[in-house]
C-alpha cells in the first residue's frame, strides 16, 4: 500500500546535506548556524543544580512561572509592552515548535499566508500541513555590498486577498542579516489598519543587532503587538541550540489557540533547563552584550573575506553574513557551495536554498551564507583555505 505524502516536495534540508558533506570531506563548517563553543559555565552549573534539586518531572504545560516572569520582564524592559505571564507567554521546544504550533493554530484549510523570500525553510511546509497556501513575496536584492535586502511593502499589499490569514516575518533576518526599520513598521501598521490579517514574527536573533541599533520587533509598538505572535529562542541567545528551548508571546485570544496545539505536540518542555534559564535570564547582562560579542566576529570574518576573491556583504544582524563569489565562478549557488566543500574544504549555505524555487534565476545571485558563530581558530582555518582560491 502506497502512502500519499503530506509534504511531497520536502526532502532532506540543505543544512543536513551540507553538514554531511562537511563531515565526509573534513571541511570547516561555516554553513549550519550553531556555535562551536560552550555556553556560560554558570548556566551549565545552574542546570546541574536544578537536576540535583529534583526538577526532573513534568513542569507546567505553558512553562514554569519564574521563566515566564523573566520573559515578561525582559520584554517590558526592552520594548515597553507587558505580556501576561499567565495567559500570553508559552515556553516551547525551541523556536521551531513555536513557529509550527502558531501556524497550525491560526491557519485553516484554504487560508493564504504571505511569506517573504528568501525565507527560513520551516515556514512553507508548516503552512502546507495546516492546509494553507503560501504566497511568496520576494525581497529586493541589494545592488551593492553596502546595501541590504529590503521588503517591498507595495508588493506585500498587492499579495493580500480576502483569504489572507497571516503574514510571516523574520527580523533580524536569516539568511540576509536584514533588520526592519521604523519605516517598515510604519508600513506594516498601515496595512494592519486596513486589512484583517495576523503577523507571525520570527525574532530569534533579537539580541544580535549591530552598531548599537535597537531591535525593532512587533512588541515595540502596541498596534503591532496586539495582532502578532512573536517567537524567540534561548538557543540563539545563550549558545545552547541543542537544548531546543524557545518561547512565543501573543495576545490572549491567539495564545489560547496556540496552547491547544502545544499541549498535544510536546505538552511541555524539559524541566531542569527551564529552572536554570529562569535564574540565568533574569540577569539582563546575559543578553545585553551579545551584539558586541558577535559584531567582533562579524568584523573579523568580513575583513578576512575581503582579502580573498569573495566580496562580503554588510551584515546588520544575526550571526550570518553573505558574500558574492562572482570573481570565482558563474555556477549556480548550490553547485558552487557543494564544490567549495568537496574541493576546497569550506562549507557554506547557498542563498538560493532559502527560496521556494532554488533553481530559478531570481534565487541565484552568486551569494552564499557564512556563519561566524565560531571560535577564532575555526574562522582562521576557513579563511586560510579560501585565501588560496
Describe this structure in words.
- The chain is an alpha/beta fold and 389 residues long.
- The chain folds into two domains: 126 residues, Aspartate Aminotransferase, domain 1 (Alpha-Beta Complex), CATH 3.90.1150; 242 residues, Aspartate Aminotransferase, domain 2.
- It contains 15 helices and 13 strands.
- The strands form three sheets. Strands 2-8-7-6-5-3-4 form a seven-stranded mixed beta sheet, sandwiched between helices. A four-stranded antiparallel beta sheet has the order 9-10-13-12. A two-stranded parallel ribbon has the order 1-11.
- The longest helix is centred in the C-terminal third of the chain and has 17 residues.
- The protein is globular and about 55 Å long.
- The model has no long low-confidence stretch (mean pLDDT 97).
Described by strand count, sense and barrel closure, the largest sheet is: 7 strands, mixed
Shape: globular
What is the number of E strands?
Answer: 13
Helix and strand sequence: HEHHEHEHEHEHEHEHEHHHHEEHEEEH
Structural class: alpha/beta
What would you say the CATH architecture of the largest domain is? 3-Layer(aba) Sandwich
Tell me the name of the CATH class of the largest domain.
Alpha Beta
- According to CATH, the homologous superfamily of the largest domain is Type I PLP-dependent aspartate aminotransferase-like (Major domain)
Cα-based radius of gyration, to the nearest Å: 21 Å
Question: Stretches where pLDDT falls below 50 for ≥5 residues?
Answer: none
Largest sheet: spatial strand order: 2-8-7-6-5-3-4
The amount of helix comes to: 25-40%
What would the average pLDDT be, to the nearest integer?
97
How much β-strand is present in the residues?
Answer: 5-15%
Organism: Pusillimonas minor
Family: Belongs to the class-I pyridoxal-phosphate-dependent aminotransferase family.
Domain Aminotransferase class I/classII large: 27-386
Keywords: Aminotransferase, Pyridoxal phosphate, Transferase
Amino acid at each position: 500500500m502506497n502512502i500519499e505524502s503530506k509534504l511531497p516536495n520536502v526532502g532532506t534540508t540543505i543544512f543536513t546535506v551540507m553538514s554531511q558533506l562537511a563531515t565526509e570531506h573534513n571541511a570547516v563548517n561555516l554553513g549550519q548556524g550553531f556555535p562551536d563553543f560552550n555556553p556560560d559555565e554558570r548556566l551549565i552549573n545552574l542546570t546541574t543544580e536544578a537536576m540535583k534539586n529534583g526538577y526532573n518531572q513534568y513542569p507546567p504545560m505553558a512553562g514554569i512561572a519564574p521563566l515566564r516572569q523573566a520573559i515578561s520582564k525582559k520584554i517590558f524592559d526592552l520594548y515597553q509592552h507587558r505580556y501576561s505571564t499567565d495567559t500570553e507567554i508559552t515556553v516551547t521546544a525551541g523556536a521551531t515548535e513555536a513557529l509550527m504550533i502558531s501556524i497550525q493554530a491560526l491557519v485553516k484549510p484554504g487560508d493564504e499566508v504571505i511569506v517573504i523570500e528568501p525565507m527560513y525553510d520551516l515556514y512553507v511546509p508548516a503552512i502546507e500541513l495546516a492546509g494553507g497556501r503560501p504566497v511568496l513575496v520576494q525581497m529586493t536584492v541589494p545592488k551593492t555590498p553596502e546595501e541590504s535586502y529590503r521588503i517591498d511593502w507595495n508588493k506585500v499589499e498587492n499579495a493580500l486577498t480576502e483569504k489572507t490569514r497571516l503574514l510571516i516575518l523574520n527580523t533580524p533576518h536569516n539568511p540576509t542579516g536584514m533588520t526592519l526599520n521604523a519605516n517598515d513598521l510604519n508600513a506594516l501598521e498601515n496595512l494592519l489598519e486596513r486589512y484583517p490579517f495576523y503577523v507571525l514574527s520570527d525574532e530569534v536573533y533579537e539580541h544580535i543587532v549591530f552598531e548599537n541599533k535597537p531591535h525593532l520587533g512587533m512588541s515595540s509598538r502596541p498596534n503591532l503587538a496586539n495582532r502578532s505572535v512573536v517567537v524567540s529562542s534561548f538557543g540563539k541567545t545563550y549558545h545552547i541550540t541543542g537544548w531546543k528551548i524557545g518561547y512565543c508571546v501573543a495576545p490572549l485570544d491567539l495564545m489560547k489557540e496556540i496552547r491547544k496545539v502545544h499541549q498535544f505536540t510536546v505538552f511541555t518542555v524539559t524541566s531542569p533547563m527551564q529552572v536554570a534559564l529562569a535564574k540565568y535570564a533574569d540577569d539582563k547582562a546575559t543578553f545585553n552584550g551579545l551584539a558586541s560579542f558577535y559584531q567582533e566576529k562579524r568584523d573579523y570574518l568580513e575583513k578576512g573575506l575581503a582579502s580573498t576573491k569573495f566580496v562580503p556583504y554588510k551584515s546588520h544582524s544575526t550571526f550570518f553574513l553573505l558574500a558574492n563569489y562572482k570573481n570565482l565562478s558563474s555556477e549556480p549557488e548550490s553547485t558552487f557551495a557543494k564544490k567549495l566543500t568537496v574541493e576546497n574544504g569550506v562549507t557554506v549555505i547557498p542563498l538560493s536554498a532559502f527560496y521556494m524555487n532554488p533553481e530559478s534565476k531570481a534565487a541565484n545571485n552568486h551569494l552564499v551564507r557564512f556563519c561566524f558563530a565560531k571560535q577564532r581558530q575555526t574562522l582562521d582555518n576557513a579563511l586560510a583555505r579560501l585565501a588560496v582560491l
